[in-house]
Every structure is written in structure tokens, then in C-alpha cells.
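Here we describe the complex-level prediction in full. Unlike the single-chain runs in Section 2.1, the two entities below were treated as one system.
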Amino acid sequence: MGRKLLLEHINVPGINTFDVYRSKGGYASVEKALKKMTPDEVVEEVKKSGLRGRGGAGFPTGMKWGFLAKPEGVARYLVCNADESEPGTFKDRFLMTYIPHLLIEGMIVGSYALGAKTSYIYVRGEMMPQIRILEKAIAEAKAAGFLGKNILGTGYDLELYVQPGGGAYICGEETALLESLEGKRGNPRIKPPFPAIAGLYGCPTVVNNVESIAAVVPIINEGGDEYAKLGIGRSTGTKLISAGGNLVKPGVYEIDLGLPVEEFLYSDEYCGGIANGKRLKAVVAGGSSVPILPANLFLKTINGEGRLMSYESLSDGGFVSGSMMGSGGFIAFDEDQCIVRNTWNFARFYHHESCGQCSPCREGTGWMEKVLHRLENGHGSMSDMDLLVDVAKKIEGNTICPLGDAAAWPVASAIRHFRDEFEWHVTHASEATTRNYGIAHYADPLPAPVAG
Amino acid sequence: MKVTIDGISVEVPDGTSILNAARIIGGDIVPPAMCYYSKLAGSGGKCRTCLVKVSKGSEKDPRPMPKLVASCRTNVMDGMEVQNITSPEVIEARKGVVEMLLINHPLDCPICDQAGECQLQDLGFEHGAVKTRYEFDRRTFNRIDIGDKIQLHMTRCILCYRCVYVADQITDHRIHGILNRGDHSEISTYIQAAVDNDFSGNVIDVCPVGALTDKTFRFKNRVWFTKPVEAHRDCDHEKCKGEVTLWYKGDDVLRVTARKDVYGEVEDFICNTCRFDKKKTADWVIEGPRKVSHQSVISSNHYDFTPLPVVKTNLVLQEANKEQFERETRL
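The structure predicted for the assembly as a whole is:
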């Protein structure tokens, strides 16, 4: 049983209200940071913890905070990226819905560390209930003196605002988010300059994921070194995984990084295995944009080692036989799922969400979607697979922002690992529209539990 | 700052982009640019045709850059080494970008007014494949009139955003921008409002394809049948110098445009009065014939050959380019 740091009190009734949250030791990190620590000490503590960004890229948060330019007389901003819209990921929404004060507490500590007087939480437009919850929580925190002028009598002022987005996936990219926050069209900016130098309104800005900011709270409470003891190697601490797909118990789980994937997938404490006694076919380990893996490669790396839920272990094998931690959107596919259909579905999402600014992504995502749609419906040809791989290669790395990569990886990896299934869609065109290919050779090695 | 592009070194001031450094060298090593426009602040970075490989970051940090970079928006560092046409990776990526640009571009060059001076046509000629691999319907739009002099044919647009920057920076009121997202995004004025501004005609000149065309010239003639002549007039508008190119067919001035340099960029933006209303020889002081880029079909049989500096110094390459050298001396 791993330690719960973020979701420790999640089952306490009324934890979403200030009074209950405070009685469970909430806002202790604010008191500790503001009264006993200098901003640089807070940053140092986060650096020591080895916390890596929980939004997808896994960039060390402490290092990001350290890069923030601090020119005299220029405002600095901390922006929380709550524009969670990756298919398969729903951890941030869970956190904001049930324990909003944790995020606000993290925002206060983070803003203090960075010297920000104004901070923003950019919430995806579709999450209206969460926006109301956050606004209520901010009002409560303000009434209790944790926000506003002269917090806890320390002389530190902070205003925290919630900004609803327009519901665009691209606004989860940090520079597009800043453009949107400024009231412009949500197009990613061309980097450099990075937001740490010129971000929101041209001022130095740090953009962090909801979970990264929430994780600052236990880091300050317990110390960076304590936090770093959890986890494995450079993957320290705990991580929220939003497990979905054909699982017995889908949901948001907090795991210690370094948990074996087999345990996460099959133990009753976590996902509880594959639903309806079916067998595992494939797994998307970190949200729709990471490469999909067949069950055998997911459970064991190409060298035969058991895979762990950590940044390093999941990306073991690179893009040839590995995947990525991503944002922790764990999607399991059982033997009845069609990989071609799923890949088409992902491609359709990226086609719809491409901002249209740079040409490879704008045109390429639509092209891939159309070819996959044709394959799925039995009108494809054998050359389509090579075409898709080639188009994905032309998009990958040639775009302004990572959305192009995110669109290309799932398609390229699906064809790399499930080429026989794509070919079957061509050779058995009429059959492919009525039944699925099945499980083939990439099944998990574990015996299927006997149903019922 | 010293930067080396495809083996040719050049000294450039701090803050110069790789593309502009390459333009200082000139010749074949200049990356093509469909969206970058040196006279429009903030343009560039979008079309990805100018991708180059940075094989050495700088003198201080010699690591190569992990990805191909957009040369129009990446500034040079001292000691940087860049590969453009010498890198197969870059040529391959550029080929991919050109294919992507042509996916939704109708191949209606035979009826397009831009044909002959179209940058996408040149780019497709240089880097494009013989045949498209795209087998689906292309997006289409209805033609929109932006005011009484400009027509927007969105089907041809490659979304370079140049006209948006013109509307933003050259004209007074911004009523022209991008609607929607992804491959269904479109350039528009909301909702089909007329652009009523003295400098609105410049969106025609900056458009690299035939998406924005001059209604006073539409379907009048092919550009290669007209003769460009430099002329000027004393324009009343304080921001307009009145220096233009007149395009003659016989004794008639068929159209008036700004003067474009070898990269298809205008030298000075001109006002709508000069562009649309002054179409008589009597309105202008004629300076002489306009030299046009060697790439353009307008100058067919009048090639203006500028050999690369590296060719000038290397005897082997001189021998290989003998024919061009002879033609240059003949002209």
C-alpha cells in the first residue's frame, strides 16, 4: 500500500469546504512557507524533491522555477494549467472537484516562491462545475485571510483568479494558454522566448500543471528530501493515474512511482484486472498522445524486465518498444477492441483540435484521419500503412508546438506494433466492418481468469 | 557574429535570423519562405518550409539542435553552423511540408491570376512530388468580396497569416483575421465586412498564392504576357511613396503593384489610390523596365544569374556552372 500524499483525506466528508480541510491540517504549508522560509528556500526545497512536471513532459518543476527571470520592477506570474483535455486523462478534474483547497494551497506557496502577486488558474471551458467549486474555495480562503492583502500578517499579497478557457485542447500548450489568457486566439507562440523570460503580458511566467502545484504542498510540509525518498530513481514522489478503459475498477489512483505495472493493473487495490474476464490486448500508458503498446511489451520491456510505473521504465525502449508516462491517462484495451478504430478515433481528435497555424499539423492530421477512416471502413489498401507512417514522420518534430508530435506518435506506434491488424482490415475488408481482429500474439502472458 | 550556412561563412549583426543571414549570402542556399515577410513584425514560423538543421549551436555550446528549426524565427549565435541544401534531412522535411501545403491547395493554376508569380508554384516546382498521394476531397469555400477591389478565394489559401499581419500593422482598424481552427480555419472579415482602408490593397501583394486577388485585374491577362515597368508619382498620401511597378500590355496599364524584390517581398507598401485608380500612363513618371527574379517566368530568356560566392571562388564549381557564367556575361 503506497502512501497517499495528495488524496490522503479525499474520503473525509466535506473536505471541499475550508473548515474541514483546515481541520485536517490544510494550509499548514502556507503557514510554514510564508512565516519560516524565504522564497528561495521554497524553490530549493522543490528542487530537492525532484518533482517532475505532471502535465506530460516530465520537466523538473524545481528547475523550471529556477529558470524564472527576475528583472527588477517587472511583475511575475504563476499560471496553473487546468486545461486538462487529453483523452484518457481526468486526474486534474478529480482533484479540483473533490479537494480544491489543495490546489489553492499549492498556488499560494508557489506564488510566494516565485514572487508572484497575481496568479491565475486557467480551467478548461467545459469544466463549469469545477470553475464554480474553485471560485467558492477561493472566496473561502480569502475570507480566512489566506489570500488577498497581507496574508497571515506576513506582508505578502496575492490575488488568485480563475479563468475559464474556451474548451480548446491546444490551450493546454503553455504558450497557447498564455495567449488565450491574454484574450487572444489560442495559438502557440514560437519559442524562444520561453515563458520563463517573456510569458503572460510579456512578463516572466511559470506555467504548471494542477497536480504539480498540488504536490508542492506535501513537499513543503514534509521537506523535499522526505518526498524524494518516495518513488524510484529520478521519478520521485507519488503520481495520480487516471485509469480508464476495460478495467474492473477504473478511476483515479494515487501510486508511488515505481509500482510494478502488473500490480497496478491486476491487484484488487488498484485497477483489479480486465473487466468481464477478458484478456489485455493493448495499453496507452499516459494519455492519448503517447505511443500505444501491445500487452506483452507493456508488461515487460524488450529486455524481459518487468515494467514499472515510472518515467524511466515506461519510456524504456524509446519509441521502438517503449512509451511514455505522459499525463498519467492510463487506457487499457481488452481483446474486443479494434486498434484501427481506436487509432482513427485519436487521429480524429487531433485533427479537430489542431490550431491550424503551421502547415504539417494542420494538413497532416486531417490526412491521417481520412486514411484511417478509410482503413477502418474496409476501403483501404496495403500501401496506406506506409503512407501513414510517412505522413506521421513528416509531421513529427516539424511543428511549432508538441501537438504535431502528439498526433503522430499514436498513429506511428499503432502501425509499428499492430501492423497485422491493419493489414487484416485491408485483406478482410467486409469482415472488418462486422467483427474485430481479436487478440493475436501480443496477448498478456497471464492466464485469463475464469469468468464467474 | 559569424555564421556558416552550407559551408559559406558570413558576418552578421547580433539578432539576425538564420534566414536573413542566408539572404545576405544569397543564391541557392536561401531557404524558401512562404509565411515570413521581413516587413511585417511577428510573421514567420508557420509554414515550416524554411526548416534548417543547426549542426553546431554556437562557439560556446557546440551541441547541435535536436530538431529542425524554422530559420526565419531562429536567431544566429556566434559560430553557428547551419545546413540547408546540404542536409538530406532538411530536403526531405521540406518535401513533406510542400506536400502538406499542396494537399488542400487546388491545382487551378491555369485559371489562377497568381500563376507565374506564385511562390507556391515555384516551391512545388523545386521540391514537390510529381504526383500527390492525397486521395480525398479538398476543402472548398465560396469566394468572398472584401470591399469592391479585392476578392478572397479562400480555397487557394495556405494560411500564411501575412495578410492578417498587414491588416494588423499597415491598416488602421483590424477587421480581418482568422476564423475557426485547424484545416477548416479561414481568413475572413467578420461577417464579410468590407475592408475600407487606404492600405488594404497590400494584402494582395503579400499573398504568396492566389487567394487574394485584385478585382481590377482578375482574368485580364496572364502575368507573363505583361511587361513590368518601374514608375512613380507624387502621391498625396503621407505614408505612400508612390513608387510602383506598372504592368503593361501594349499601351494599357493592366495593373499596378508595389515593387517586389527577389524574395517576393514589397519594397514599400503603396496606397489604394496608386494601386486601383491610377491606370493611365499619364498618371505616372516612367523610370524604366523592372528587373525581375531569375526564378520568375516573367523573365524567361532574361535570366539574371547570381552565382553563389562559393562558386565564384571554386574553379571546379565554375567549370560545372560554365553555361550560366557564359549566359551572365552575354546579358
